[in-house]
Design a protein that fits this description.
globular; 13 strands; single chain; binds magnesium ion; alpha+beta; binds cytidine-5'-triphosphate
């Protein structure tokens, strides 16, 4: 009886939650989370926050030590790593747990269905467990013994997915120790500022930032599991399809909290069977669409509808089918991820592989990409809302291009990666040559001993003076090319070479980026900026080095009004203000000035 009422309670709670959630649930959630982050930063670190901070910071430090995603395991190729993770996700389940339960009893119960390889817990909108079995048969056995919820006043869609709810008889769970929860959200900007200020060099800061922000093994597993759960829905229509993550989930530059970009991969359907003997063969009769784009749109439209109406945990589904790359956007509530499902987008998967490869050639690449992306977000150069802003993908390509310009170059050109490819690497997608070497050991790098700090400084100098009006950024050639069209910022798409990755960027946004680069380059010249003051205790360290670069800019406000006002101020006083702000203690600085906060 109690199990029954528990079950009913959770279904009602879920239904209530669903009905109160606006279509933009996930967007709101992410938005509030980031607003909270900046709020924290701009209002300074209060006592209560400080207490929490100490424990959060120890957690970030521990996480950084445990995190092993920086190096490809045993020199496996990108494809092999993705395939291994996908296969693990197919053997996993996601279980919503009650607020109190006994971890050992829970695992014992599940072990009746087979050996558990790995498991972890996290808390978001409730407590969840990810459990990976060693064999897919365990999933079948577990599903056999799982019930559909009984509901009296509502009807449930009887869809049996691998998203389950644990029902625990109440009464016996006082003083239960709670399991350890794995963090799935990024540290706040306040935590980051404090953490970095305690470091002894800018190089250490950049490494620490990367380790604190990067996706954890658990977070990547959860991302693959969400793709796998979605695959179960899509396979109702196309049994051979696979849903694969791409973008920052897999390219090595993902930050905790970033979206999950997914591709509906239908290649398995197109694989043809060999006919032997008589020469006779059979062909499927199929419906034809007006164009490949129209077929993609109709496939995504039905899957979007199915996800909306039958997909457990999927809320706020929007079909964005008129975009250049049609997509279905939704929030996966149990994981807290915002998901973008696309189809027929194999080139983007190849771009992800390319970035993965660049990111794993030299640790300085990831340090630079993480720091530039973080710096850009702190100054609202990038945004989670689509618009005329520079995107994280564009910034990453700009970092790669900059590293190709060093003397000697730190990264090889894309043309070189194509030259090094073996016969099995050959890949042409819709007429675009997407061939790149998959074996990292074939790539010989030149000896360049620049520190990450020097590279960061010179990145700002490079783009603070780049001839954006006439030059295009081209990582294929590793050289500036003449801009083929009139546009503020031209970054050639690595594989679809007629496309501009940053077509959306307008002159105002480019100008903000350039000004901020100039200001940041200028800050690097100042000794107050470069060194941690030795007189400060670790309790009260002022932001310096990279954390000082995150302080509100005096030159590039996001709003038109604020920018006009600042133009009246003489340059020397703007610079003086900036330096003064660096001298004040971290929390007080932003609380006192309260300027130029990100407005989105
Ligand atoms: N992409 C592309 N051309 C663009 C934008 C995106 O080819 N103009 C591809 C890239 O492979 C990119 C992926 O789509 O990595 C996902 O795009 P997006 O989510 O915007 O970027 P991410 O790299 O995933 O970064 P973020 O962390 O901001 O999500
Ligand atoms: Mg993304």
């Amino acid at each position: 009886m109690s199990t029954h009422s528990h079950r009913r309670g959770s279904v009602y709670a879920c239904a209530r939650l669903k009905s109160t959630m606006a279509a933009s649930f996930g967007v709101c959630r992410l938005h509030f989370r980031s607003l909270g982050r900046f709020h924290n930063f701009y209002l300074g670190l209060e006592t209560q926050t400080h207490r929490r901070l100490t424990s959060t910071i120890s957690a970030i430090k521990a996480q950084a030590v445990n995190n092993t995603v920086t190096k490809p395991k045993e020199n496996k190729t990108f494809q092999a790593i993705q395939e291994e993770r996908r296969e693990q996700a197919e053997r996993s389940v996601l279980i919503s747990c009650p607020p109190k339960f006994n971890e050992n009893k829970f695992l014992d119960y599940l072990s009746k269905h087979g050996t558990i390889n790995k498991h972890f817990f996290y808390s978001g909108y409730g407590t969840y467990a990810v459990v990976e079995f060693s064999s897919e048969e365990s999933i079948a056995s577990l599903k056999e013994s799982t019930n559909l919820p009984a509901v009296e006043h509502e009807a449930a869609v009887p869809f049996k997915s691998r998203l389950l709810s644990l029902k625990w008889p109440g009464g016996q769970l006082k003083n239960q120790p709670m399991p350890t929860f794995q963090e799935q959200s990024p540290p706040t900007i306040g935590d980051i500022t404090q953490l970095l200020s305690e470091k002894d060099s800018i190089d250490e800061q950049l490494q620490c930032l990367t380790e604190a922000l990067q996706l954890t093994e658990e977070n990547i597993s959860l991302r693959f599991l969400v793709c796998s759960l979605l695959g179960d829905i899509a396979r109702a229509y196309f049994p051979e399809c696979i849903i694969r993550p791409f973008g920052s989930t897999v390219n090595g530059f993902g930050k905790l909290g970033c979206d999950v970009d997914m591709i509906l991969d239908l290649d398995g359907i197109y694989a043809t069977s060999q006919t032997k003997g008589s020469g006779l063969s059979l062909e499927y009769q199929v419906k034809r669409g007006a164009s490949e784009r129209a077929v993609t749109q109709s496939i995504l439209s039905v899957i979007g509808k199915c996800v909306d109406q039958f997909g457990p945990g999927c809320v706020g589904v929007q079909n964005i089918l008129q975009a250049r790359c049609p997509l279905v956007r939704f929030s996966h509530q149990p994981s807290g991820f915002q998901c973008d499902l696309t189809a027929n987008n194999r080139v983007a998967m190849k771009s992800s592989e390319l970035l993965f490869l660049y990111g794993h050639l030299d640790p300085r690449v990831r340090h630079l990409v993480f720091s530039i992306r973080y710096w850009a977000r702190a100054h609202s150069i990038t945004s989670s809302i689509p618009g005329a802003w520079i995107t994280n993908f564009s910034l990453t390509v700009m970092v790669v291009f900059f590293l190709q310009q060093r003397s000697p170059p730190i990264l090889p050109t894309l043309d070189r990666l194509t030259e090094l490819a073996g016969p099995s690497d050959k890949c042409v997608i819709e007429g675009n040559d997407c061939t790149i070497v998959s074996d990292l050991s074939k790539i010989t790098l030149q000896k360049n001993t620049d520190t990450s700090a020097k590279l960061l400084q010179e990145f700002f100098e490079f783009y603070g003076n780049f001839p954006f009006n006439k030059a295009s950024i081209n990582i294929r050639k590793g050289k500036e090319q003449t801009k083929p069209e009139i546009t503020a910022l031209h970054i050639q798409n690595p594989f679809e070479t007629t496309l501009n990755v940053s077509k959306n960027v307008n002159a105002t946004q480019l100008e903000r980026f350039v000004k901020l680069c100039q200001e940041s380059a200028w800050l690097f010249q100042k000794s107050e900026f470069l060194n941690r003051s030795s007189s400060q205790s670790s309790e009260s360290v002022s932001p310096w080095g990279f954390s000082a670069l995150l302080l509100p800019s005096v030159t590039s406000g996001a709003g038109v009004k604020s920018r006009k006002r600042r133009k009246l101020e003489p340059t020397s006083s703007r610079i003086k203000n900036l330096l003064d702000s660096l001298k004040i203690k971290g929390g007080e600085t932003v609380a006192k000035k309260g300027i130029a906060g990100p407005s989105r």
